[in-house]
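haha ok so turns out i had the wrong file open the whole time. this is the CORRECT one, sorry everyone. sequence first:
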Amino acid sequence: MDIQNLQSRASSAATAIDFIIDDVELAAESGDPQDINEAYIDQAIRALQAIKEEIRGRAAESRATKGGA
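then structure:
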């Protein structure tokens, strides 16, 4: 995954989080937790997990390169 792909995933997560915040505010006003769209939560989680795995992979590659040098 390149930097542009990471940026795209981060943007997707940020957008989903913005929608989650809006939904939570709406739910607080209405008193109805069903106003929170769980799909946005799932989208944010998937995007953040992909970013986390990519960062872990890059860190492992970096450690292997430094250790093997």
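The chain has a mean pLDDT of 88.
again sry for the mixup
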